[in-house]
Amino acid sequence: ADNGAYVGFQRDPPDPQLAFNCAAPAGCNRISNNSVPDNADGGGIALMRNARAYLYQSVLAGNRARYGSAALVASGSTLNLEGNVITGNTCVPPPGMGCTHIEVSSGTANIRYTTFGSNIPASAVVAKRQSSLLNLYSSIFSTPYAVLVYGPPSEYRLDCLLGPFGSAIAPPGATVTRVATVGNLGFVDAPAGDYRLLPNSEAVDYCDATLAPPNVGDLALAARGYDGPLIELYGLYDLGAFEYYPPIDALFKDSFELVR
Predict the structure, then answer these.
(1) CB atoms within 10 A of CB 36
(2) Per-10-residue mean pLDDT for the chain, 260 residues long?
(3) Sign of the alpha-carbon torsion through 8, 10, 14, 18
(4) Preceding omega of 121 cis (within 30 degrees of 0)
């Protein structure tokens, strides 16, 4: 998308009965298996010169590029992600340079309720140049690296994130709140691409919606803010693409919540 163009993906139509039914882990809206030459950026989607994209309840998978294997946001463009799974994307940067799966270069990225799966290599998000803005909320990372920076400082706001971060969560100067380092993220079957949450996942009932009020339901069209089986940490909202709901036959069992 270029020169002020608009792109939109969303599963929730005005009438929920019109929503197309598909297997939740696979996703109905997909940007997948796209590639550009190894010296080009933006494999899945490329936003240039004030373009805008709203990608809700979608899967970005199997895309390939030098930088921004899943998405490139450049030249005043804005990317809004919510309720997405980003996995299986591959970047091929020049030797000695870092890999990025979402490349924000003089643009804005607003990312919430998104699960970053097994992208290759393991870097996840970067706001690269001056005047970039990154708001990253209520999301899960399967790899240690969440935000990498090359070049002048930009503006970052990170809240309610979960992953095996260690010391690699964010650049100096970022505003970081309610971020936890967890090794076992509690997915149903991540190797098979199923990033739904298990009932004991630390992502269940992790956050409130102060900074990230949901615009849509989760990737499976379920409402956000279900009171799950764990005692709330900061609120009722689960992190990542999926809100945890128990199987139907468990809905009427006792309502005691488990200690984390």
Answers:
(1) 18
(2) 90 60 68 94 96 94 94 96 95 79 93 94 72 91 76 79 76 81 88 93 95 94 91 95 82 52
(3) positive
(4) yes
Written as one string, the DSSP assignment of 83-106 is EEEEES-EE-PPTTSPP-SEEEES
- Integer angstrom CA distances of residue 202 from 106, 134, 244, 257: 34, 24, 11, 13
What pTM value is reported for the model?
Answer: 0.91
Main-chain phi, psi angles of 172, to 5 degrees: -60, 140
Q: How many CB atoms lie within 10 A of CB 58?
A: 27
List the one residue out of 18, 7, 24 whose CA is nearest residue 71. Answer: 7
Tell me the C-alpha distance between 215 and 46, whole Å: 23
Answer yes or no: are the C-beta atoms of 136 and 80 closer than 8 Å: no
